[in-house]
Amino acid sequence: MPPRSTPLHGVHEALGATFTEFAGWNMPVRYAGETAEHTAVRTSAGLFDLSHMGEIRITGPQAAAALDYALVANASAITAGRARYTMLCNAAGGVLDDLIVYRLADEEFLIVANAANAAVVSTELAERVTGFDAAFHDASDEYALIAVQGPRAAAILSPLTSTDLTEVKYYAGYPSQVAGKDVLLARTGYTGEDGFELFTAPGDAEDVWRALTESGAEHDLKPAGLACRDTLRLEAGMPLYGNELSDRLTPYDANLGRVVKLDKPGDFVGKQALAAAAEKPTERALVGLTTQQRRAPRHDYRVLDESGAEVGVVTSGAPSPTLGHPIGMAYVDRAVSEPGTALQVDIRGKGVAVEVVELPFYRRNA
C-alpha cells in the first residue's frame, strides 16, 4: 500500500516540505530546516501536523470501567474535561503503546494512540471492552490533528477562539471553536513547551492551519516537521515508542511506574506482572547522557564503562540545538546509573566520553 497523506498534504507541499514515510503516512519531516524549527518552538512557536495519530472513542455507561480494565490508568478518576497520560500493557506488563486519554463527558472518552501502534491499540481496546456496557469506535479517519507549541502558543491561538485559554489547564481538553470551526481544544503536547493540540474535522484542517499561520505571523510561528519534534521530545526527556518503550519493557523500566495505578479497584490487564515489577528494582535504568564531543550517541549504540565492558545501549540521541552539545537516553546497568558517572559510547569503533545526567535535559520556565 502506498503511504497515506494527511488532509494538510497540499499545504505542506506549498510550503516546500521534505517528506518521509512514517508509520504508513507521508509526513513532512522538515521545511526550512529542523534546527530553525526546533528553535522556533523553544523561543516562539511551531505548527505541527499530527493527523497521522490514531483516535478511538469509548462510550457508554461502563466506558470508564472498561478503560479501568484495559489501561494502567484509573480512568474512573478522570473528570470530564481533563486528560491523562497512560499506557496500554500486555499481560506480562510490557508496553504496547503510551496514550493520552481525554474524558469528554461522563460516558465518553477519546484515546489518542501513536501512529505506529494505532492498529494494535484499536484491536486491543476493541477486545478489552467486550463484556462491558460500552461501545468501541475507531474514529481515526474522523479527525485531523494540529498542534501549536511554544511560549507564544497561547498568544497565537487566543484571537481565534472564544475559549479563555487562561482557564485551560495543562492536560485539559474541551469542545471549542477555532477560526469558526468546531474543535476539541487540548492543552497537551510532546515538545516540553506550553502548547495546544486541536482535533478538527479533516475538511476543516486547512482553514484552521491557515488561520493559525496568519495569527502567528507577528509571533515568528514556523511550520515544524517530524525531525524537530524528535529533538524537542528528546531534550524534554519524553519517551518514544520503539526506543525507550516496547512490549519487552514495563513502565517501571522507563521510570514511568507512576502512571500504573495498582490501587485502583478491580483487575486490569497486566496487573499481576506490574505489581511484581513494582516490588523489585529493574536491572537497567533509563538515564540521560551528555557529551562535549562533536559526535552524538545514536539509537542502538553500545554504552561502555571505563574498562570498555558493555553496560548498556543508547535508545535515542542527537545534537541538542538548545543546549549546544549532543545528548542521548540509554538503558544502562543500575550500578553505573548515578548522575555524574563517566561512561563511553561506542561510536563507529571509538569510545566517546559521556556523562550520566538526570532527565530531562531541558525544562521550560513556568
From TrEMBL:
Q: In what residue span(s) does the GCVT N-terminal domain sit?
A: 8-264
Q: Which Pfam families match?
A: GCV_T, GCV_T_C
GO terms in the biological process aspect are: glycine decarboxylation via glycine cleavage system
Residues of the Aminomethyltransferase C-terminal domain: 284-362
Keyword hit for Transferase: yes
Q: What is its EC number?
A: 2.1.2.10
Q: Known catalysed reaction(s)? A: N(6)-[(R)-S(8)-aminomethyldihydrolipoyl]-L-lysyl-[protein] + (6S)-5,6,7,8-tetrahydrofolate = N(6)-[(R)-dihydrolipoyl]-L-lysyl-[protein] + (6R)-5,10-methylene-5,6,7,8-tetrahydrofolate + NH4(+)
Q: Binding of substrate: at which residues?
A: 197
The answer to whether keyword Transferase applies is yes
Tree of life domain: Bacteria
Gene Ontology CC annotation, any one? cytosol
Q: Which GO terms describe its molecular function?
A: aminomethyltransferase activity; transaminase activity
Q: Which UniProt keywords apply?
A: Aminotransferase, Transferase
Stored SUPFAM superfamilies: Aminomethyltransferase beta-barrel domain (SSF101790), Folate-binding domain (SSF103025)
PANTHER family cross-referenced by the UniProt entry:
AMINOMETHYLTRANSFERASE, AMINOMETHYLTRANSFERASE, MITOCHONDRIAL
Q: Which family does it belong to?
A: Belongs to the GcvT family.
Q: What does this protein do?
A: The glycine cleavage system catalyzes the degradation of glycine.
Task: Tell me the subunit arrangement.
Answer: The glycine cleavage system is composed of four proteins: P, T, L and H.
Name it.
Aminomethyltransferase
The organism of origin for this protein: Saccharopolyspora montiporae
Q: Which gene encodes it?
A: gcvT
